[in-house]
Amino acid sequence: MARRALITGITGQDGSYLAEHLLAAGYEVWGLVRGQANPRVSRLRRLLGDVRLVRGDLLDQGSLISAVERVRPDEVYNLGAISFVPMSWEQAELTAEVTGMGVLRMLEAIRVCSGVSSSRTADPSGQIRFYQASSSEMFGQVRETPQNERTPFHPRSPYGVAKTYGHFLTQNYRESYGMFAVSGILFNHESPRRGAEFVTRKVSLGVARIKLGLAGELRLGNLEARRDWGYAGDYVRAMRLMLAAGAPEDYVIGTGRTHTVRELVEAAFSAAGLDWERHVVRDPSLHRPAEVDLLCADPKKARSHLGWEPSVSFEELVAQMVESDIRLLSDGGDPDQESSWP
Ligand code: NAP
Ligand code: G4F
Fold first, then answer.
1. Which CATH superfamily hosts domain 194-227+257-295+313-338?
2. Catalytic site residues (predicted)?
């Protein structure tokens, strides 16, 4: 029988790639969606007609229990979150509720529906396997470089703090109840489906607008921050591998290469034959209250235990995103509309 997966956050970037990946592997895929009229749901339906939907919200414990009871998944991927770091200062409590407490609610739904009532009573053979979308933002002000599974955390935003709670809770449910629960500590990963507010997509859309004469400048914040950027399609493969492993363990997923935002900007403008210095305007209002200056993964464990490797380089990724956005805008597409996903 086909394995059954339930994905929270299925309308987001990673949810769409993970759903595609699992469908191709023969899974029955269910997505948890909230709200009545979410244009992201119709965008997903257009892209992936085979996905089944169940209503629910990470803020609502009962809805998660009902969703797990109805779907009876073999695997749950918890990707739902408020994931834009600047928003986490503006709506810190909501971020704690969705990105942090949402993990507790999902784990509780699985525990209750699996009938695990006391410590370490779970039977590993018939368990619902749980993946938590943790983040390199937990490393924050980094204690060492590159960062691996043993690097201590020092989160720098309410988002990073909420993710750290979710990470430790996932470990705690594994240790307390013997659940197959894993935390994937993923570094930044991008694609033509990335939300327009994140810097890579903001830059690729900005370059496309300038190239097509639709804009003259691009306003950006801190150009010196360094990130380890990879391709989202590669990272969802790692999620599945973690749940298919013989034992539940946490993994760092990244490329092991780091670039400044300035290097990203240079690469993106040059992919379109443009000189970035003529168009980029530094805007101090886009700087963050506390910045994460440097992220760089040490993905050795994922390579040796899971056989995972990234397949798309930074340069290829940036060029693909720029090309995709030039095509999108040339065809009259609107990046904010449901029709825009390649
Ligand atoms: P994304 O595009 O921002 O998607 C976030 C998803 O969360 C959306 O589907 C959204 O659904 C859903 N969501 C928001 N509030 C919810 C709620 N109250 N209940 C249920 N679902 C809710 O994020 P992404 O880039 O795909 O990232 C996926 C996950 O990985 C997130 O947890 C993110 O924090 C984490 N992560 C991402 C990266 C990265 O570089 N992309 C790196 C490390 C970790 P709606 O359509 O209903 O808003
Ligand atoms: O693209 P960003 O907004 O991503 P950030 O903050 O690194 O977070 C992303 O990756 C995390 C994994 O490490 C995820 F957990 C999280 O959910 C999200 O997907 O910003 C990247 C860098 C920052 O240093 C920021 O200060 O780009 C810098 N930046 C400079 N100008 C800008 C801008 N970021 C944005 N969004 N917009 C700017 O104009």
1. UDP-galactose 4-epimerase, domain 1 (3.90.25.10)
2. 164
